[in-house]
UniProtKB/TrEMBL annotation:
Species for this entry: Sulfurospirillum barnesii (strain ATCC 700032 / DSM 10660 / SES-3)
PANTHER family documented for this protein: EXTRACYTOPLASMIC SOLUTE RECEPTOR PROTEIN, PTHR33376
Family matches, as NCBIfam families: TRAP_S1 (NF037995)
Protein name: TRAP-type mannitol/chloroaromatic compound transport system, periplasmic component
SUPFAM superfamilies on file: Periplasmic binding protein-like II
Signal peptide: 1-20
Pfam families, per the entry: DctP
GO molecular function, one term: metal ion binding
UniProt key word S-adenosyl-L-methionine: no
InterPro entries named in the record: DctP_fam, SBP_TakP-like, TRAP_DctP_sf
This protein's UniProt keywords: Metal-binding, Signal
Chain sites annotated for binding Na(+): W211
A single cellular component GO annotation: tripartite ATP-independent periplasmic transporter complex
Length: 354
């Protein structure tokens, strides 16, 4: 059978369009919303590195465009935007959403809980990932570790804390379970978006705040207003999260799923070591470049009260929320096992080789 040149040309055009259509359908472009301002290392670096790795590993076929809070204007709205499909994924901290679901805060960190090494081991080898996915799936999302700050400092205070009385009526920005502990001890607790922290402290909206550690804190200028800088207890391993719309993730090819998971895991590790370097570098400069900063630890009676308040709140939540109890039991059991090695390994090495 012979075809005219016109028909052959049409067939060729249809084939070309089909090939082009297939190529277009293979290309995936996602949008990601963060809880952070556009320039906010290492948090924003972690996200940018992840998006870059996805694009490179996919040969440009999978791209992720990042919108900082400067654009979408909702630092604490990431979970809703991802759930509703306005964004395909987000980068945030689970404990910002304890009002929606109290168990989510446990995937960021818990006071007096695991350190970063212990927590990562729990996630990847102690069943933590499966537990986290079950908690997030009921919200139409998956969650993946998105970078850890390690032990965070206890916060910046305008006045020295010498007793429990000094906490009464204190206005403090502190999220997560630690916020509930401070509230139980008489503080007026609030959660403020990262970009508004300095202004709130400067204007007296708050008397104290906790953020991360010297690597991120000193550049924010908190020490100019609140010079008392307390050591940590409340966030021993603050893990951020990549949250992903479940339906969107399930539609990805197996190849793109693997690429995304690998990029997120690598970016999380990158953030951990970048933040550690930033804090080590900043701490090295504090005594000479910032002599007004007064490094303090909370008095023992205050720490004892915090520890007791933590135990009481955990018991209360566990009694009222079976899912909270299951997660806490898993974390506590793993920490008990891992802490024995941490003490004889990491801690003993540091203690004996000062």
């Amino acid at each position: 059978m012979k075809f005219s040149k016109k028909i052959l040309g049409s067939i060729a055009l249809i084939c070309a369009l089909a090939v082009a259509g297939n190529a277009a359908s293979d290309k995936v472009t996602w949008k990601l919303a963060t809880s952070w301002n556009a320039e906010f290392p290492p948090f924003t670096d972690s996200v940018a590195n992840m998006a870059k790795m996805v694009e490179e590993m996919s040969g440009g076929e999978f791209q992720i465009k990042v919108d900082a809070v400067n654009k979408h204007k909702s630092a604490f709205g990431i979970m809703d935007m991802v759930k509703l499909g306005q964004y395909d994924m987000g980068h945030t901290a689970s404990y910002y959403y304890k009002g929606k679901d109290p168990v989510l805060l446990m995937f960021t960190t818990m006071p007096f809980g695991m350190n970063a090494l212990e927590q990562y081991a729990w996630f990847y080898f102690g069943g933590g990932m499966d537990i986290m996915q079950k908690s997030y799936e009921k919200h139409g999302m998956y969650a993946f570790p998105g970078g850890n700050t390690g032990v965070q400092m206890g916060g910046w205070f305008r006045k020295e804390i010498n007793s429990l009385d000094d906490l009464k009526g204190l206005k403090m920005r502190i999220p997560g379970f630690a916020g509930e502990i401070f509230a139980k001890l008489g503080c007026s607790v609030t959660n403020i978006a990262p970009g508004e922290l300095y202004t709130s402290l400067e204007r007296g909206t708050i008397d104290a705040l906790e953020w991360v550690g010297p690597g991120m804190d000193v550049s924010m200028g908190f020490h100019k207003i609140a010079p008392y800088y307390y050591t940590g207890w409340h966030e021993p391993a603050t893990e951020l999260q990549f949250v992903v719309n479940k339906a969107k993730f399930d539609k990805l090819s197996d190849k793109n799923k693997a690429i995304l998971k690998t990029a997120m895991k690598t970016a999380a590790y990158d953030m951990l070591i970048q933040n550690y370097d930033m804090s080590a570098t900043a701490w090295d400069k504090i005594k000479t470049e910032y002599p007004n900063i007064k490094i303090k630890s909370f008095p023992k009676p205050v720490m004892d009260a915090m520890r007791q308040a933590n135990a009481d709140l955990i018991a209360e939540q566990s009694a009222n929320n079976p899912e909270f109890k299951r997660i806490n039991d898993s974390q506590q059991a793993y920490m008990k096992k891992a802490r024995a090695w941490t003490n004889i390994g990491e801690f003993a090495y540091i203690r004996d080789n000062q």
